[in-house]
Amino acid sequence: MTTPAIPHNSIGLALGSGAARGLAHIGVLKVLEAEGIPIGCIAGTSIGALIGALYAAGVPLTRMEEVARNVDWQQMAGLIDPIIPTSGLIDGKKVAHFISELLPVETFEELRMPLAVLATDVESGELLVIRRGLLREALRAAISFPGIFTPVHFAGRFLVDGGLCNPVPVDVARDLGATRVIGVCAIPEVEKRPQEAFLPNPRRDQPRKNPLFDFFDSSMVERLLRDLWPLGESDEPRHLEKGRKPPGLLRIFAQCIAIMENEINSLRLARDGADVLLRPELNGVTLLEFNKADEIIHAGEEAARAELAAIRALTGH
Hints:
lipid metabolism; alpha/beta; hydrolase; hydrolase activity; PNPLA_dom; NTE; 12% strand
């Protein structure tokens, strides 16, 4: 069986990363399908790869929406298979099994349209575009959030989330043969202004800190260590606001990746330029708030409707 060919003069979809925010892709697809916008191929990163694969496999959007909205995300914690930390906190095999139960096909060649899934070689830093072979393993690599999930051994490489290199793969959709590309970016655009910060000089009456912190000058490192080895209240550093807790370890992982992806995304979108770029309004949603599926999917629908005139223009009508 061969990979399906892309129809001539097709529109491609580039579905980006964003963890829970990426559920907005379902809303975008709902509008495109309702409006009869023909999609010839999909390139996906991270959760965009997963949703793109489900759509390319013929899974109805009503089914995707039902799973996203009705799944008990607290019970889903049972899919997490923690391991002794070496290269990640979670193995991910149970998550891969869950994905395979949703997919009606096993290989790329069985899909109804061309699909490209992006992953990053964690050792070399290379971006891999996967288009053939076992779909489940490719998706498992594409969603392997670094530091949380262990890298996936695939084709002699160790792979993690493709969003590290290409958060919204507009250029990959064009490489698949699309002449026009709709990009969907679920990473909120943040205006960051440089700020000057300083740490106050220690006071003589300041309580003695945990001696481990004497080896570190960085408050970021200190906060990270506090997650792993909390201090007693009497040892709390004075430069932290009273009553304000530092972010947890997993939140630090997630936020650091999100900050980097935002910067990479800005540079890539400026260079690759989608014909239409959709950015759902998701500033009130964090990376792990899958329980807000209804709100997120609705944001995707609203973003697509707001650009319907531009989208219809891509079809020549």
